[in-house]
Specification:
CATH architecture of one domain: Roll
Strand content: 35-45%
Order of helices and strands: EEEEHEEEHHH
Helix content: 25-40%
CATH class of one domain: Mainly Beta
Largest sheet: 6 strands, antiparallel, barrel
Number of helices: 4
Number of strands: 7
């Protein structure tokens, strides 16, 4: 098991199809990797008045695509498909606990960008420069790929009706 400080979190899209790209103002957060199952847990603490979208996700139990950075805010983001697990009222805020799976990390992004540059027939020095240019725009690139992955995931894993 590995634990990392969660620095930033953005909700990119939820199960209802709402395309949000909403940054969440977190007071504190962490992510835990369970090595055996590739399952991750993410916990964030926000103030009571922040982020009504979080409250809605938890009340409706909507799966969501989130983008996080861990350890340092300037690290490359990673995308996770998460399911609301538990929310807890604290003396100074609310704790939200998600379970989920990483769907795109730094290595995935680099490989994806490199494949696209090669498929676009760049070679030699042009390939290197184009790769660097696209890497510098990685935020938009990872968001686009992650959203498509999330849509595909929802088609392959329809919501179960609790009752």
């Amino acid at each position: 098991m590995k634990t990392f400080k969660l620095c930033t979190l953005r909700i990119l899209m939820d199960e209802s199809g709402r395309d949000t790209t909403i940054p969440v103002q977190i007071k504190d957060g962490l992510t835990v990797s369970t090595d055996q199952t590739a399952q991750w847990v993410a916990e964030i603490v926000v103030t009571d008045t922040d982020q009504p979208i979080l409250k809605e996700l938890f009340e409706k139990k909507l799966r969501a695509l989130i983008e996080i950075t861990i350890s340092r805010p300037d690290n490359d983001p990673a995308a996770m498909i998460v399911t609301p697990y538990e929310s807890t009222q604290l003396s100074e805020g609310v704790s939200y606990l998600f379970t989920g799976k990483m769907v795109m990390m730094k290595n995935d992004l680099s490989e994806s960008i490199l494949r696209e540059v090669v498929e676009d027939n760049f070679t030699g020095e042009e390939l290197i420069q184009e790769y660097k240019d696209r890497r510098s725009k990685r935020g938009a690139h990872i968001t686009s790929i992650a959203k498509e992955t999330f849509k595909q995931y929802l088609q392959e894993h329809p919501a179960t009706v609790e009752g």
